[in-house]
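F.,

This is the one I mentioned.
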């Protein structure tokens, strides 16, 4: 073999070996490899391109399925459903319901897809998502980019028919051309997905659709919920899907009281609330050059705001309405604090975008260790403990 051929063979073997090693590390969800190589690479990409790449990876199940069962300490039962663990993926990642199986394999206890609008719409103009690396945060102004009910319905239905799948929630949004006071988009969503979703979410808290948050005001909210509940109750299915309301963090004390009073009324009694969506506020200590971009801020800066909001709603509702806590969860301790504040389940989004699939297993492991160290046999024993003592 000539020296040139020897060199070619050496390079081929080296590159092949490197590619094989990298593929195995990704397949196995190696935390160090993701931290040192995969995530730094994705941060070199445009944030929306990085998002699409992550969805592609999950869609094609490029991560090995978690085989080890979740600890009993973090298993829970809610709305008549078993959750192997309380860690879910928030809406906004898998907007078009393309990657549910891959996300389930990653270890999430439940996956919320959407937001889904009745008619397809492109959302806001690009660029519309910004990564604030120094702040471990994201600002997005996607604006409910959705392929519409029909396209998403077929995927959710197909996933729901699989023997092994995640608990699936469908987050419902409004088309931007629909009149804000018209509740029809949400009613249509309930009718479309009510028979196939494990739970439904009424999203009136996105800051990226003009006027949407006005639906959180007392009178508008009461009308919306009563209409949507009527549609849900008349679905004619054996098991009615739980109906949840997703709220904003940017509510004053009076607005929070109004919402709590509405959802405690018999004809407006939702099955749960998701606390909370992204914030339009900007903490003064943000460092990133993108800090002043318009849109909703998520991630680390939202953590304490969200936890306080969870505690407020747990107290205002007397713990009668289950809460899914979301906002700045990146560790088992973060999840535990949300549970202590009153959350029955917890969701991730930004930390998943920053740290990749290994974060799911790590948070579950850390949460189990914390529960045992605090003397809790199950997460259900810890729900609302700090809210009740404050």
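My design for it:
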């Amino acid at each position: 073999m000539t020296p040139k051929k020897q060199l070619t063979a050496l390079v081929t073997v080296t590159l092949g070996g490197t590619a094989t090693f990298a593929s195995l590390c990704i397949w196995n969800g190696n935390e160090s490899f993701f931290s040192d190589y995969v995530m730094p690479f994705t941060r070199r990409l445009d944030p929306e391109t990085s998002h699409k790449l992550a969805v592609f990876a999950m869609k094609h199940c490029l991560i090995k399925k978690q085989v080890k069962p979740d600890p009993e300490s973090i298993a829970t039962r809610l709305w008549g459903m078993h959750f192997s663990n309380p860690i879910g993926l928030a809406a906004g990642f898998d907007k078009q319901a393309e990657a549910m199986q891959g996300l389930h394999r990653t270890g999430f206890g439940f996956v919320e897809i959407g937001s889904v609008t009745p008619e397809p719409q492109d959302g806001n103009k690009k660029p519309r998502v910004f990564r604030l690396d120094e702040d471990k945060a994201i600002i997005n102004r996607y604006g409910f980019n959705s392929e519409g009910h029909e396209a998403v319905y077929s995927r959710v239905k197909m996933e729901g028919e699989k023997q092994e799948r995640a608990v699936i929630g469908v987050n419902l949004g409004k088309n931007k051309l629909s009149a804000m006071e018209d509740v029809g988009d949400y009613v249509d969503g309930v009718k479309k997905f009510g028979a196939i979703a494990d739970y439904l979410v009424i999203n009136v808290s996105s800051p990226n659709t003009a006027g949407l948050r006005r639906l959180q005001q007392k009178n508008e909210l009461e009308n919306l919920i009563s209409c949507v509940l009527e549609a849900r109750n008349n679905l004619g299915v054996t098991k009615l899907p739980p109906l949840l309301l997703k709220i904003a963090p940017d509510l004053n004390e009076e607005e929070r009281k109004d919402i709590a009073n509405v959802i405690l009324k018999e004809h407006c009694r939702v099955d749960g609330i998701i606390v909370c969506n992204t914030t339009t506020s900007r903490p003064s200590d943000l460092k990133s050059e993108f800090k002043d971009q318009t849109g909703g801020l998520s991630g680390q800066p939202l953590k304490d705001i969200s936890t306080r909001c969870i505690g407020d709603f747990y107290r205002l509702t007397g713990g009668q309405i289950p809460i899914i806590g979301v906002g700045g969860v990146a560790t088992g301790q973060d999840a535990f604090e949300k549970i202590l504040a009153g959350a029955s389940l917890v969701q991730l989004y930004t930390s998943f975008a920053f740290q990749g699939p290994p974060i799911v297993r790590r948070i579950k492991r850390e949460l189990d260790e914390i529960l045992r160290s605090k003397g809790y046999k199950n997460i259900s024993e810890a729900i609302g403990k700090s809210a009740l003592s404050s």
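Residues 14-25 have pLDDT under 50 and may be disordered.

Talk soon.
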